[in-house]
Design brief:
The protein has no helices and 32 strands. By secondary structure, it is mainly beta. The protein has strands at 5-6, 11-16, 21-26, 32-41, 44-52, 58-65, 71-76, 86-89, 95-99, 110-113, 132-137, 140-145, 155-163, 166-175, 181-185, 188-195, 198-204, 210-217, 225-228, 235-240, 245-251, 257-264, 269-272, 276-279, 282-289, 292-299, 302-309, 314-317, 324-326, 332-339, 344-351, 357-364. The relative contact order is 0.13. The strands form 7 sheets. Strands 23, 24, 25, 26, 27, 28 and 29 form a 7-stranded antiparallel beta sheet that branches. A 5-stranded antiparallel beta sheet has the order 1-7-6-5-4, with no helix packed on it. It has a 5-stranded antiparallel beta sheet with strand order 2-3-32-31-30, with no helix packed on it. The protein is globular.
Length: 366
């Protein structure tokens, strides 16, 4: 396979603020920058994106940004691909990508190293599966897919087995009951699904075989996201009610369930995205509402910060309204949030509609 090549296609501007560091990445004139994926890369942030012109023609690129907001390196994807690459880690910590190479008659997918491809040979291309990377268990990289267009299809757990730094085999397992939330920690995959009036909490191995299970009630609450799950410690989930209150659900190891009001949101909540672990028992997550977007961080059931979009690109920490950051666009999309170093995270923003610039905000709350 062709190696990625080094480039300097983006212009870079950095500004340091009390709240963090803002990095502005500007495309060449006449091109639009479109964020595709993002992952932790040795404490830095690796972002994949496409540059395309007014005819929707363009190429795929990668940029590495440090927690200090500096651009470490820029790369261009030299393989001919038809879809944006998706990142994942191998068990030994290398960065891999899911790529869809060009084929005149059908859609195909391969898994490849991002770097050092000189002597690399991928597995035989297969039909793409829209599964999301969820983490590592032992020698397996795990992906999970919930078919949102069906109420009956089982979920799919896809496991890539690694040996000597290469993918040895791919396993696909159907998971029922379906529509599970996932949480990977300490070489365990936790699944939480609806089971009549209760929630079914299971631990399964990399091939979907059940190791342990329990049921607990949630008073009819619809779980938005899992923050953390454990059989030996308290588990935390997040939901909301009709009064736009964001609520934490705690489940003890004994199965006792309680609720805690986290925040009264003065807006109709649309979505909370999957929490990202940024430190011990500390998780950051982004949200969307009818009044904008934002993010918040929770540690051991306590709210540490709650940033919400205001007017003209200003985000305020509603816990401390005097704390704010100003970004150079009136309307912004949050593309992704990822962990960097201990207590740190990076958020990628794009203007709406997308244009010639992408913004990355690095912050640490240690």
């Amino acid at each position: 396979m062709k190696n990625v090549s080094v480039t300097e296609v983006l212009k870079v501007g950095i500004s340091k603020k009390e709240q963090g560091v803002i990095t502005r990445l500007k495309a060449p004139a006449g091109y639009i920058i479109d964020h595709s994926d993002q992952i932790n890369y040795g404490g830095n942030t690796l972002i994949g994106y496409k540059l395309y012109d007014k005819n929707d023609l363009g190429d795929y690129f990668y940029v590495v940004i440090s927690p200090e907001g500096k651009v470490v390196q820029q790369y261009k994807e030299e393989e001919e691909i038809t879809m944006s690459p998706e990142f994942f880690h191998s068990p030994d910590g290398e960065i891999w990508v899911k790529l869809e190479p060009y084929h005149p008659d059908k859609d195909l997918e391969i898994q490849a190293l991002l770097f050092n491809r000189e002597n690399f040979e991928p597995l035989k291309p297969s039909r793409p599966v829209p599964a999301k990377y969820i983490g590592i268990i032992n020698n397996y990289a795990l992906f999970y897919d919930v078919d949102l267009w069906s109420e009956t299809k089982p979920d799919k757990l896809i496991a890539f087995e690694f040996k000597d730094g290469k993918i040895k085999k791919k396993y696909t397992t159907k998971i029922s009951p379906r529509d599970n939330h996932t949480f990977v920690i300490n070489n365990q995959l936790h699944l939480v699904a609806n089971d009549e009036d209760d929630r079914l909490h299971r631990v399964v191995n990399e091939k979907g075989n059940e190791i342990r299970s329990r049921r607990f009630p949630t008073k009819g609450r619809w779980i938005r996201q899992i923050i953390s799950m454990d059989f030996e410690k308290d588990s935390w989930m997040i939901t909301n009610n009709n009064e736009n209150q964001i609520i934490l659900i705690k489940v003890t190891p004994e199965g006792d369930v309680s609720e805690k009001l986290l925040w009264n949101l003065d807006a109709e909540l649309s979505h909370i995205w999957a929490p990202i672990r940024i430190a011990e028992n500390t998780y950051a997550m982004t949200f969307n509402s009818d009044k904008g977007n934002g993010w918040f961080t929770v540690r051991n059931g306590d709210l540490l910060e709650f940033w919400s979009e205001g007017e003209k690109g200003i985000y305020k920490n509603l816990i401390n309204p005097e704390e704010s950051i100003s970004l150079p666009y009136d309307s912004l999309i949050i593309d992704h949030l990822t962990h960097t170093t201990e207590g740190g995270y990076a958020i990628a923003f794009s203007p709406y509609p997308k244009g010639e610039e992408m913004i990355v905000f690095n912050r640490n709350i240690s």
